Amino acid sequence: MDKKFQCGRFEFVLNRPIVMGIINVTPDSFSDGGVYYSIDAAINRAYKMIDDGVDILDIGGESSRPGSDRVSSSEELKRLLPVIESLKNCGVPLSIDTYKPDIMKSVISMNVDMINDICGFTKPGAMEAVASSNCGLCVMYMNGNISNMHDCFPNMDVVKDANIFFTKQLSSFIKYNSSIMNRIVLDPGLGFGKTIEQNYYLISQLEKLRVLSCPLMVGVSRKSMIGKLVDRSVSERLCASVSCALISVMYGANIVRVHDVAETVDSLKILNAINSNEAR
């Protein structure tokens, strides 16, 4: 029987890869900083992704690129709330990319469907903010913390450390809500405190990260781990990003977080067709 993922108002049967589209309502994100900073631009981008076949929209109001400045909760909400209000009935789940518990509470009150936390709900109050909701929850594994999240730790056994972290966080979540497991997704956090070699190793070992049978999400789109390998600028990383998303699915990812929705959806349709023929 295919595993199900409860994502707020929506439920996914994970019999195919899920595509999450990135909407950065920020002036300084590494890939598209400023392009969708205005409310109208972000909304138009979201509806284009919906037309292209996106399954989940992931909206972020603070950049996590190397060197980016932290923003206040009030500024983050100022960026997020108008976009959430405009898209709340768009027909696909809305995920909010935030690590701040007060932001989580505010957006959950607006009936968003998922919280995507790069800190893996380690901030004081984060678990309490989300445990009693019906939101999907993405627990990301970061080496280090929010202040040094792009420093590398080359001697670390990233698979072992990720499993320790996921097991600890899931155990804590279960104490808050024993029925929470069908709402949790795990993300190895590619690019956050890992070397290039560690990032690609984590992709090759995805199935070893499936703690308590949780679905897995991978976000690699346009990241420096791709640019440094293929020697391409951010704007030239489309083919490599789509390839990496496709390979991640082949190694076990259930959800891929991407900028280029149409191209990823098309590629996954081919993979799904091949897999369907293999199952006959």
Automatic annotation (TrEMBL):
Q: Does the keyword Coiled coil apply?
A: no
A single Gene Ontology CC term: cytosol
| Pathway listed | Cofactor biosynthesis; tetrahydrofolate biosynthesis; 7,8-dihydrofolate from 2-amino-4-hydroxy-6-hydroxymethyl-7,8-dihydropteridine diphosphate and 4-aminobenzoate: step 1/2
Q: Taxonomically, which superkingdom?
A: Bacteria
Keywords associated with the record: Folate biosynthesis, Magnesium, Metal-binding, Transferase
Give one GO biological process term.
Answer: folic acid biosynthetic process
Q: What class of enzyme is it?
A: transferase
| Database matches in Pfam families | Pterin_bind
Q: What is its EC number?
A: 2.5.1.15
What cofactor does this one take? Mg(2+)
Reactions listed under catalytic activity: (7,8-dihydropterin-6-yl)methyl diphosphate + 4-aminobenzoate = 7,8-dihydropteroate + diphosphate
Gene3D superfamilies per the UniProt record, alphabetical: Dihydropteroate synthase-like
Q: Pterin-binding domain spans which residues?
A: 17-269
Query: Which GO terms label this protein's molecular function in UniProt?
Result: dihydropteroate synthase activity; metal ion binding
* PANTHER family assigned: FOLATE SYNTHESIS PROTEINS, FOLIC ACID SYNTHESIS PROTEIN FOL1
The entry sums up its family as follows: Belongs to the DHPS family.
Q: What does this protein do?
A: Catalyzes the condensation of para-aminobenzoate (pABA) with 6-hydroxymethyl-7,8-dihydropterin diphosphate (DHPt-PP) to form 7,8-dihydropteroate (H2Pte), the immediate precursor of folate derivatives.
**Protein name in the entry:** Dihydropteroate synthase
UniProt organism field: Candidatus Kinetoplastidibacterium stringomonadis TCC290E
Please spell out the taxonomic lineage of the organism that makes this protein. Bacteria, Pseudomonadati, Pseudomonadota, Betaproteobacteria, Candidatus Kinetoplastidibacterium
